[in-house]
Design a protein that fits this description.
Oligomer: single chain
Bound molecules: S-adenosylmethionine
CATH class: Alpha Beta
Structural class: alpha/beta
Radius of gyration: 20 Å
Number of domains: 1
Strand content: 15-25%
Number of strands: 11
CATH topology: Rossmann fold
Strand order of the largest sheet: 3-2-1-4-5-11-10
Length: about 350
């Protein structure tokens, strides 16, 4: 039976902030353009790089967490059912929650990771519909069990729409380029963390990507004393702070523009030490946090992730980057992280 919406939930809905409306409206208004148009984007190099970073995080942290659930193979048999001539096929395993899944840009990545069950949730209902369509048109062999729901995950519990999927816990929760929208208030961050942690199994992994507060605040502090507006950026991105006041841990707002992706949307600084402290209260312990450029430096020679750079068109056959300097600078606004539930 579906639980009725509580009074607290209803109160939160009434209080849904203007910024939340702006964020949901913005992402709903950006249509899915299809593969052909996607590769024509002026920042295709940066988009490919971001996809490579997400693939690395999935391979490094999510896949091992999902593999722990594989049943051991009987002695002398491989996963093809004993056909010793063929390389073993990895069986599907693992349950993933993609919070802020958007238009399903990571569905192929989760398919390649042999995910068995995938739940995608996002506040933007149009995006959720597009993600669902994308899943339906994925090639049959690689399609996993999936469900999609439109939900404001920073104001509502997952049980509101997905209680029937929460009987078995998740092995992985992923939040890509979306967690920072929760940092408008501590209440939202708490709801978000409850949704991440409550249905994640002990030993399970929480991965994500957010803007780097140290970098943003460093740039803000280095603006000239009379700078107005309080902005910095280049031809690819622009960040404009409301004020220089850094006293608020939650609700420190700036406006973000990214060419061909984000049109001046309100975002919030993720003050990292406070976030780590709060996450610990939900049993989530950090195991990884790295700037994107550093992830590239550490992983570009890796036997599995290195060759992916060319396959995902981050570099060409000669190894030349498909990003110009402005895109490379924009790429390093972000950090990748992983937490483990203990
Ligand atoms: N994760 C996807 C990806 O990497 O391609 C989409 C990233 S997009 C930059 C940010 C997403 O966060 C948008 O789809 C937006 O609708 C979603 N989002 C923002 N606030 C949310 C909320 N309160 N609950 C759920 N999703 C939210």
């Amino acid at each position: 039976k579906r639980p009725r919406e509580s009074q607290a939930d209803a109160g939160r809905a009434a209080k849904r902030s203007r910024d939340t409306e702006l964020v949901a409206g913005h992402y709903n208004a950006r249509p899915e353009v299809g593969l052909k148009k996607r590769v024509e984007s002026p920042i295709i190099g940066l988009k490919s790089f971001n996809n490579w970073i997400k693939s690395v995080l999935i391979a490094k942290f999510a896949v091992p967490a999902m593999r722990q659930h594989e049943p051991p193979l009987p002695q002398g048999r491989n996963a093809n059912g004993g056909n010793a001539g063929r390389p073993p096929r990895v069986p599907m395993a693992g349950k993933v929650l993609d919070m802020g899944c958007g238009k399903g840009g990571d569905l192929q990545k989760w398919s390649k990771a042999n995910t068995k069950e995938y739940i995608g949730v996002d506040i933007a209902d149009m995006s959720v519909r597009q993600a669902h369509d994308r899943w339906q048109t994925m090639r049959g062999g690689s399609r996993f069990d999936a469900e999609f729901a439109a939900l404001d995950c920073y104001n509502y519990s997952l049980t509101t729409k997905l209680h029937h999927r929460l009987g078995t816990p998740f092995d992985v929760v992923s939040m890509q380029f979306c967690m920072h929208y929760a940092f408008e208030s501590i209440g939202k961050v708490r709801m978000m963390l409850e949704n991440v942690s409550k249905y994640l199994r002990p030993g399970g992994i929480f991965i994500g990507t957010v803007p780097n507060a140290d970098l943003l605040l460093g740039r803000l502090r280095s603006l000239a004393p009379d700078a107005e507006p309080l902005e910095f950026g280049n031809s690819v991105y622009n960040i404009r702070f409301d004020s220089r006041d850094e006293s608020a841990v939650y609700g420190q707002r700036y406006w973000f523009y990214l060419q061909d992706a984000v049109e001046d949307v309100p975002e919030y600084v993720v003050h990292w030490p406070a976030f780590e402290e709060l996450a610990r209260q939900y049993g989530l312990h950090r195991v990884y946090k790295e700037e994107f450029q550093e992830i590239y430096r550490q992983e570009n020679g890796h036997p599995e992730y290195g060759p992916l750079l060319e396959k995902m068109r981050v570099v060409d056959a000669e190894g030349a980057s498909s990003m110009d300097n402005d895109q490379w600078e924009a790429a390093n606004i972000y950090i990748g992280f992983a937490f483990q539930k203990r």
